[in-house]
Design goal:
The complex is a heterotrimer of chains A (326), B (638) and C (327). Chain A has 326 residues and is of the alpha/beta class. Chain A has twelve helices and twelve strands. Chain A has a domain at 91-215: Rossmann fold (3-Layer(aba) Sandwich), CATH 3.40.50.300. The model of chain A has no long low-confidence stretch (mean pLDDT 79). Classes of the chains: A alpha/beta (326), B alpha+beta (638), C mainly alpha (327).
Amino acid sequence: MADNLLEIKGLKTYFYTEDGIVRALEGIDLHIEQGETLGLVGESGCGKTVTALSVLRLVPDPPGKIIEGEILFEGVNLLALSESDMRQIRGNDISMIFQDPQSALNPVFTVDNQLREVIELHQGLDKKEARQKAIEMLDLVGIPDPEARVEDYPHQFSGGMKQRVMIAMALSCNPKMLIADEPTTNLDVTVQAQVLDMINNLRKELGTTVLLITHNLGVIAEMSDHVGVMYAGRLVEYGDADTIFHAPLHPYTIALHEAVPRVTEKKQKLGVIKGVVPNLIYPPSGCRFHPRCDFSTEVCEKEQPKGEWVGDHYVECWHRREGTKL
Amino acid sequence: MNVKTRKVSMVLSIVLLTSLVLSLFGTTAIAQEQQITKVPFTEDYSKYPPFFTITQIAPIGNKVREQYTQAVNLEMPKIGIQADFKLLEFGDLINREFNNYYGKAYSEDGFDISSFGWSVGVDPDPFDIFHSSAMTPIGNNVTFWYCPESDEMLAKARVELNQETRKDYLWRWQEIVADEKPYCVVYIPLNMWASVDTLDGFSGLLWTQNYDAASWSIPGKDTIVYATPAAVEGMLVWRWNSVYGYYCNQQIFQTLWQNDENLNQSPVLADSATEGPTIVFAPSMLDDASIEALAPDVKKCNVSSKLAEPVVFPEYFDIKIKEGIMFHDGVEMTSEDIKWSFDACVSPDTAFQGYGTFRDVYGGSEIIDKYTLRVFVGMPHAAWLRNCDVNILPKHVYGSIPITGAEAATGWMESDVNRGETVIGSGPFVFDSWEADQYWKLKKNADYWGAKYGLPDAGCDFLVLKLIPEREAARVALETGEADIVDTYYNLTIIGEELEATPGVKLWTSEQFGYQHLHFNCRNPYLANKYVRQAISHCIDRQGIVDNLLGGYGVPGRNPVAVPSWAFNTNVAPDSYDLAKARELMDMAGYRFYIIEKEVTVEGGEAGAGTSTTTLIVIGIVALIVGLAIGYMVKKKD
Amino acid sequence: MGMREYILKRVILIIPMLMGISFIVFMLMYLMPGDAVDLMLALQPDTDPAYVAHIKSIYGLDQPWYIQYFYWLKQFATLNLGSSFLSGRDVSEEIGARVVNTLSYQLLAVVFSIAVAIPAGIVSAVKQYSKTDNLVMTAALLGVSFPIFFLGLMNIFLFALILGWLPSGGAHSTVFLGRDIPHDFSYYLDYLKHLALPTLTLGLASTAYNARLVRSSMLNVLREDYIMTARAKGLKERVVVYKHALRNAMLPVITVTGMQIALTLGGAPITETVFSWPGLGKYFVYAIQHRDYFVIVGITVVLGTLILVANVLIDISYKWLDPRVEF
């Protein structure tokens, strides 16, 4: 486990709503190695995005609050930083792109304005230089005729183009880490591949570490070095991509795989994970997955399973499905 | 279904229905014993069905009037009159009463009972409101009331030059009105002005009664600010849309006579008036032959139908004006200015709407010499001279504005005088400036001619009339020193007690020259009966209205004549608030306060009256249902 | 469609709209009982009916209303609004003497209300459910619930009577009334002092409303993704709120402000009455009460034009605020 860029230790993030406390993250341990791509996967509402927002300390407060834990970025605990120090990190060391490029760009300002903003802020360039840099960035992400398009407003770009602009914006300060929260979910399928390719290429080119959040296993398979599987505010399995895809040990991961259509196999029916995503105000006792797990026993109901590392592979389950081959 | 069964079922139904009806009739037939109870006059009648229903109306705007109308409205059911209450927009009310009315009831776009207020002069001329020849739309007799003796008194009073004799007529007339009650005078409010307590020389009379602004002064202040609630329109010399334009006119322009502080007619421009020889005036409805037959010197009255019968009256008056009256531009006033002003004022083409009476009484004029004008009588009128209260304008300044022909109306409207650009009169104040909706500013006339005749110079250098529409705002302005006098039309009596307690504020009161009243549509079949009208008058708690609604700042009403006037008949007692008396009067009007209470005694006597009726009804209904059921079954069988 | 064509089209559309408005107003006016002459003479008991008829014929009041409307339209085609039955002056002159007074405090009130409502709304949106938020919203609720008449009188009592800072009403102090008063600095200063209370009163009423609007609009915008983007860029919260959120939050506020212009103009009679302010609103009511037909129509046409022009300006500012808007 050499050279972790980011290390998350025992992170708990709660949301204090009128209905009760939503325990969105209930103790997450996660690390990302320098230069790699970590894929974070899980159902909607499992806490992937909250993890990302917690890293940037952008969890909306109120109602959200990081209760405890540590987020070490290059060995510095981000949770202990002052707000102004944190602002130095946002957009500069860690930047983020969001899942809906349609709404992630401010409709009333030109692309130039929005790109320059971050460049001027973090790189101390003047307006002219920043504009030049903005044009370069647009060129880099493959926007044709960037000198002219830089003056356009977001609504004049297509969805894929907007996401490229977002990526340009996120990468314009050469961040050490890029958090991509479902970057392709709202895009056309044909565009998805292009954008993913681009992220991959840029990552290699610039040496950026990427935290890729998605619920799409296919995307993870293509992009990630390591994969973390989240369920109901917990990290349930972690390992290198190969292991997670070919030798998962957690019943949930296995179930996820079965729910994915495959071209290579001819299955009559897709696997379905029974039950619903648990209510995080009143989470299930013991293992949070037990009500939906085919293998659950009494102990699952009573006690939270302890995570266990086997080499580089982390599993949090009372009944590791050893030897399951997919 | 065949014809036979249909017949059977029909017959059956008819029999059953008839039996039901008969059974009900039978009830009354059995219960022949009726007990007739007479409701005593002292008992509240509102729980019994009313004798008739009418509609009471009042214009929106005057809160006290709205309230007293409502108060009376709540009393009337107690004497058996059901009255609906409608607050109408002023224009609607005017339309109902004056324009398309002809004695029609409320339901036919006329009215039944209306609340209203008249303002009247020192010299009362109730002819136009009460004489039968002045019924709307010709005159303002909205009540359609007709009483021969009243007509006679009014006709005599309006042409009697002797004030004592005139008083006798009018006092008698007020007795008639008190008995006949076409009008119920409810109260006479007090005028109330509030001013800084240093104000001096204020008469506490309306400007229309006594134009005394020249005598006002406040030690240490050269500008007096007078707050008025209504818009100040323009310098329409002989026409005004609010009394405030009139206020200002009266300080700049002058009339032949005006009232002194005791309301006696005193000369201003006039020096003297001499009656000419008397002749007989005949009503214009008489044809020329009949007039010839009366006497050789009979003059036909030029005003249609306003004279009831031939009267003897001076043919003309020779009016002499003072010498040395100077207009503001330094030119002396002559009889020519008077004649021209009179002619301009009455010309129909100029569309001046003021001076209605003057237009009737003026019969043309003739210049005798530089200071004397012979004014012919157009219509005999008791207060003939008082009605010659026309503003006198300099002919040499305004003479170029046409007073006849198509251009006259627009010519005057667009003239310099109306626009406030050239305003030249003869009064103690000179026009300074004016801005629509804001103010009028008058300046002291430094060269006023009046001193040698004992007429006072203006007591302040500037007089400013400032428009402040809201009462509370005007009161604050008085307290902050932005205004010195607050006009009576704010209905200050509503906050009278508070003002009395405010330091530095002085109140001035006088009885209003007018009266608030209810008047009746005497063509309404119910209200045509004078006992009904009297009864309603006894439903009005006049003292209560004065005490509770006016805070004591008022006088209970008696006669439709201004209280301070010499013509007010002090012998007429005000109607008491007495519902028993009112019910007695309703009884006299033919509305018997008897009530038939159905007390049924069934023969055999063991069941109570009520129970037996109910039982019979129940039996009837059961019979009906059974009948219908049988009919239905018969049908079904087909 | 380009901006220029759009404006041209809107301006041309004003003409048929004014014709429609004036037609309706004419029809309504003549449905009111009584005309100017009837009301002038109502309290003069002894006027000869023939004379009344004569006067009516001078003013053309004896004609049916549609004929009168036709005459008015003919006049209006030459931009002549006719003259007042009551004062005799041209309607355009009467309106001209008052329209500036009305516009001055109306516009100032809008400026005041926006200037106060935006910061107040932002503060209470950014600090939602905080004490400041509660305070601002309670004040706004009070402001919305007070009738303007009451608010006006309270302001007079407070600022004119108790504190004595401002005059209670009118447009000028007595010393500035008159023909020969020089229109110098102190004259205008005095006018501004008199302007303060009407502006404040009208402004407070709409401030209350606008603050609530800004708050809710701001709350909506602050939930948008691009706000998160802006924060993720490391921008200061101030920049996020005032640059990224505010401009977007202003869109509904501008819309409502545009509609408010018509509404507050409708409230002008009350404000102007309370403060003795020589404006169009009070005059309008006066004209209706006295059935001064040409003045009524004239004011309607002028106010209608103002509102239509205001709407065009709002549309233009929309385009400026939001590049997505296409005409």
